[in-house]
Amino acid sequence: MVVRKYYTGRLSARCVTAVAALVAAFCVVLAILAVPEAVAEYSFDGMPFSVVAQGQMQGDVLTFGTYGLRNPPVTCNFSLPADPEWAKIYVGVWGGTNKYTGWGQASVNGHALEKTMLYGKDDRNDNVYCSGYGVYWITYEGTSMLKKGANSITMNTSYAEPGNKLDGRVYMIWVVAAVRDSHAPLTSYWIADGNANLHSAGWAGDNPTILDQTSVVFSGVDTSEATAANLTIVELCGTKLEPDFLLFNGKDIVGSPTGGNYLPGALDLANAVSYDQGIFYGQSGTPAAYVDAEVFDVKGLLASSNTVTFQRGRDLNGDGSIDKVNDLPEGEDYVHPVFAMLKVQKAGASSTAPDLAIEGLRVDNAYAGEDASIVFTLRNLGAAASGDASIIFSVDGQAIDTRQVAVDRSGVQQVSGTWKATAGSHEVTVRASVAGDFDTSNDAASATITVGSLPDLVLSLGQPYRPGVTTSETTGSPLLAAITALSVGLAAWLIARRPPGRRKALATIVLLGAVLAMALVIASSITPVVRAKESTALFLLPVTIKNVGGSDAPGFNLTVYLDGEKLTIKSFGDGVRAGSETKIDLPVYASPGSHRMKAVVDEAARIRDANRADNVAESTYEFT
After folding, report:
1. Do 295 and 404 belong to one domain?
2. Residue 120 phi/psi, 5° resolution?
3. What count of Cα atoms within 13 Å lies in the side-chain half-sphere of residue 617?
4. Which domain holds residue 375?
5. Is 109 left (phi over 0), alpha (psi -120 to 50) or beta?
6. What is the per-residue pLDDT across 348-394, written as a single tens digit (0 to 9) for each?
């Protein structure tokens, strides 16, 4: 109506037609932009692997288990040729969701252990690894409870208890036991456990995360004269026909999948069948719903330091994501690696010599005039020690404490000493010795620390950004340029064809303003065009943590929230030195738009800080 009021003749008709076409095109684009996309579900990432036992002995490390999700009670019966030098018991339990709570109770050789309460997303038990939607990996010390001969372990849960919501079904009972045998070869072993939830964004909730892989390193391996080297792994929650991969020192060690339709290049470790890969490849294996245990020969790939990597999938078609291609998946929706063990054997060898090593030296609570803790991990890379280890703690070359420590049969233990800290810069040294140690080069470690007033950690956040994406790519400049060119061209044409007269000139200006306004409306919608292509995207959140206090800050956790929901916990195990800072770009998966970010340093207040008020940073950012 406005156009007809101010324009007549050929110009009016052409203008109406051109503007109508432009408006129609704009409406189509805006309608497309208005289509909502599905929002994913939340899950947390779980616990990375850590080495919990290692050693060397004439004998073997044996494993036993039940395989496949089943209703409790579940029993594992097995026999040991001798009392174990070291043993551990694992039980996998399905919670149903991470919001349900319940309990699990193991009975070992007729002795009922104390019930373990399972708290889902609020679980804090030292012996429970809970991740994802409530996948529990429960650990029990087994050295003192298992024995030579027949053994029996039964697991029960709150599965059938009235009012119980916890699913409570048992994935598996898994037993690992190091047993001496005078007729066996010399065996060195490294055992790691954890519960990493490898998952796609589609299984990660309103504030999605993606975890595509996890690794563990087995170091200190003597490769000389090795006659055999085997890797044993356990994964939970795997699904057949959903590819996943296992690498040893960067090389794939899983065989090509059989009995299903897979994309080219796909492998399938977690296919709900145990013992059909590795040394058992080509065999039918043991059907085991959501459980995969396998043994691989890795002798040909063995090195002094060995990295084992679990991958939930791969981008097989090169489109930048691990998704589906023609309805065939490129990876698991989610899978949980929970166990890895490396064994290296030497034929005819016998050794009774230990080999102590010191790792991870740190000094906690080192403040002027106060008692500081000197903490480190003592590892025994060799045979069991026949006597105690002598530990000497020194500061600036002067011994301050000497302790006798029984070497744990697991070969991995934490040792600590106390020092009355004084202000200044100091070199702290620890040294371990034991009778018969065959390699003394790794018996000592040192660290330089700064002691003064309390540390003061100051947290700040930067503007989140898309990695590897330029500004023009995130604002949709090609479409903006096309719209701008169209608008300017139409406006120029209108001006050139405008009829004389004040009212007609005014009409031209009005029409030109309408066209430009329409261009601005569309331009403001261009960013959603890019957003609509992916409901969530990877952003990097710049995080800076400064220590403006007088002493080094010990290790701490950084907790990050997105729109009020806990997104992730990042560990800073090395802390921050006095007067220095650490910077990271923290991965955040979010839908483009406005989001409230909050981060807290040491939210649990486990370390002393001069001013906790600056441990928190919170702001609203535009994710574009």
Report:
1. no
2. 60, -130
3. 19
4. 356-451
5. left
6. 666 678 999 999 999 988 999 999 999 999 999 888 898 999 999 99
HEC string of 422-452? CCEEEEEEEEEECCCCCCCCCCEEEEEEEEE
Q: Give the model's confidence band at 208: pLDDT under 50 very low, under 70 low, under 90 confident, else very high.
A: low
Angle at 476 between CA 483 and CA 208, to 5 degrees: 145
**Are 243 and 310 contacting, i.e. CB atoms less than 8 angstroms apart?**
no
C-alpha span between 338 and 235 (Å, rounded): 6
Rounded CA-CA distance 443/274 in Å is 40
List the beta bridge partners of residue 362.
375
Upstream peptide bond of 73 is cis (omega within 30 degrees of 0)? yes
Tell me which residue of 571, 607, 535, 602 sits closest to 41, measured CA to CA: 535
Query: What is the rounded distance in angstroms from the CA atom of residue 298 to the CA atom of residue 438?
Result: 26
Q: Which 3 state secondary structure label does DSSP give 470?
A: coil
Q: Are residues 27 and 74 in the same domain?
A: no
**Domain check: are 274 and 380 in the same one?**
no
* Model confidence, pTM: 0.76
Can you give the C-alpha Rg of the chain in angstroms? 31
> Of 398, 421, 451, at which residue does a domain stop?
451
Strand-pairing partners, residue 231, are: 296, 342
Helix (H, G, I), strand (E, B) or coil at 404: strand
Number of domains in the chain: 3
Domain boundary among 427, 451, 475: 451
Residues 166 and 271 in one domain: yes
